[in-house]
Structure prediction request, 316 residues.
Amino acid sequence: MSAAPGPVPDAPPFRSVLLVYNPNSTGGGEGKAHTLARELRGLCPGLDVDLVPTEYAGHARTIAESAARTHKPLVVSVSGDGGYNEVVDGAMAGGDGRRTGTVVAVTSAGNANDHRRVTRKRPLAEAIAEGTVEYLDVLRLTIGSNRPRYAHSYIGLGITPVVALALERGGKGSLRELVTTFREFLRFSPFEIELEAFEGESRDGVGVGDYLGLHRYDSLIVANLSEMAKYARLSEGDPADGRFEIVSIPHRGRIRLLFTGLRAAWKGLGWQPSARHLRFRTFGELPLQLDGEVITLPGDTSVAIELVPGALATVR
Prediction:
């Protein structure tokens, strides 16, 4: 998987590293943070490495935003996709909204680690020691007139956030995940939105206007990665290709939804329409998954999803 290289700096892109972790993580975040710190001190004796435990929900976002506005270290999230979302969101807020104000990275410590799994090139300690910064795309979500939120991997509506919420309530682990997913699949109802704008390209002569208007979906995923949820292969996209993929499953019954999920896990969904901008209006409240975090969209609200090309400065 290729990425657009950033400019070669005259000086090292970072002189210090913050390892941000949740001390109460069930994924062993604290131990993994200490292990990475030891590796970095061995590989880079002159690099300042600080361990920074989070103290409350959203603290990683505050840490990254402060770092992006001040001394600009490398901020490493020792977490799953949800914890890394906080770091990316904070770094984007501390920058100019077009590129992270500091270099960020993630090392796996959690249930869902799609971003690290898909984009990984080498062990993170080696990537940090080499110091080569690459630039990946970021998704920007704007809900009504609220400040934008950012996502490194995907934004999902429909069955995806419903299952995510159930997993948080019911616990994680292979058997539990399967039982929870099947239970929510049986309970799930489709949702309706009105597509208001679509800036992208499609296949076989289908025009932009054919996507607009009222739609009823079982699932709608705006994907910056080709894979999600550990097993599903969504598309042929790349997180540095200047586009996001729109993976939509119109409501046509549970059997079709089940077969689509099995196909994604077995051989992948293949080519999907891509875009740079998507805007829709909600009718009622809807759960939405932003990487690993689930939020609620208010009813009768315009929602915009845009691609910010090359905005994520990272090592991998």
Summary: The first helix runs from residue 29 to 43. The two ends are 11 Å apart (CA to CA).
